[in-house]
Every structure is written in C-alpha cells, then in structure tokens.
Write a structure and sequence with these properties.
- By secondary structure, the chain is of the alpha+beta class.
- Helix content is 41%, strand content 13%.
- The protein contains 10 helices and 6 strands, in the order ααααββαβααβααββα.
- The strands form 2 sheets. It has a 3-stranded antiparallel β-sheet with strand order 2-1-3. It has a 3-stranded antiparallel β-sheet with strand order 4-6-5.
- β1 and β2 form a beta hairpin.
- α1 packs across α4.
C-alpha cells in the first residue's frame, strides 16, 4: 500500500472506535468531542479521515461539509463510518490483527491462528455484509512485525524470534504479542 493511503495510529483509533460493536450499532453517533477526548486524537486527524471518505460528519442528522467540520464546536458534530470506512475496517489485515491481540485473553496468538483462524477470534472485525473475513498473509504479518506492531516468541520456550521469516514454514511454532506501538493503532477501551 502506498504511503499516501496509509493511516496514522490516531486515524486508525478513530475508525476502530467507530467500528466497535457498541458504537457501530447505535442510532446516535458519538460526538467529535467524545472521540477527541476518549481516543486522544486531534481534530485534524478526524478531518483527514473525513476527507478520505472513511468517516462522515453530521450536524442535526444531515451530512456536514468538510469546511463546517473545521469550524463548528466539537459537541455539535456527530461522526459515523461511511460505507468505505466500514469496508476498510472490515477488510484491513492490520486492524484485524491489532484488535485480536488487544482483546486476547492471554494477550497473544500464534501466527498460524492470526493467518487462518481470525474469523473465530472475538472482537475481530466482522466482515462487511456479503464479504469474507480478512485473510492475513505471512507477508502482511512480517510487515507488521517489521514496523514493531508486535513481537514474536517461540511457543514452548518464550524465546524471542529475531526474524519472523525464520518461522514462516511453521507459523504455529511462534506467537505474537502486541507492542505499545501496535496498541496505539486500536481504539482505547
């Protein structure tokens, strides 16, 4: 994915928060003020995801122009995901992995589970209607590990794996644990 299409950690927190089941299913969308406070994001982050068409700003039940999003009080504006935002959240491998690791009871999953069993993991993005859950490739996991979003350890020994490619042929031998940086890409509880 090109750099201009990548989202920052703050922008992912906005999308992830709006995609959480508690928010996604509500009739009344959260206010801009709530998202700024709860997710520690700036108004500019919200404006960026709105300009990309992933989030829609609303005022009094009607869509709000981007110019008004920059000027109106935070409490007056409500936010919700657009169809593009829902699709992005439901199919993005990074969000799926980060949410799985964030909500894991033990804080870890084997690489094999992340690649092949993600649809069975609670709190993972549910696929958009008519879509299959995201499939995570080993290359995508290697990219995330290379960006220090998670650390990898051997299952039986807990020994750190210095290069994730060392376990590529048998991904069930290693597990991933989310780093602080990786946790910053998922909505705060």
């Amino acid at each position: 994915m090109s750099k201009r299409h990548q989202l920052t950690a703050a922008q992912w927190r906005i999308i992830s928060y709006l995609y959480e089941p508690e928010q996604f299913g509500r009739r009344i969308s959260p206010t801009l003020a709530l998202i700024i406070n709860k997710q520690s994001v700036d108004r500019s982050d919200v404006i960026e995801v709105a300009e990309r068409g992933l989030v829609q700003a609303r005022l009094g039940g009607e869509e709000c122009a981007h110019a008004l999003l920059k000027k109106l009080p935070d409490r007056a504006i409500r936010l919700r995901l657009t169809k593009s935002g829902i699709y992005r959240a439901s199919t993005d491998p990074q969000l799926a992995v980060m949410r799985a690791l964030r909500h894991s009871a033990r804080g870890q999953f084997t690489l094999w589970d992340l690649m092949y069993r993600l649809e069975h993991v609670p709190h993972c993005p549910t696929p958009a209607p008519g879509k299959i859950p995201p499939r995570i490739t080993f290359g995508e996991l290697a990219d995330m590990a290379g960006r220090f979003l998670f650390e990898t350890f051997l299952v039986d020994d807990g020994i750190p794996v210095s290069d994730i490619r060392d376990v590529q042929t048998i991904p069930g031998l290693a597990y991933a644990v989310q780093t602080k940086l990786g946790a910053s890409y998922v909505a705060h509880p």
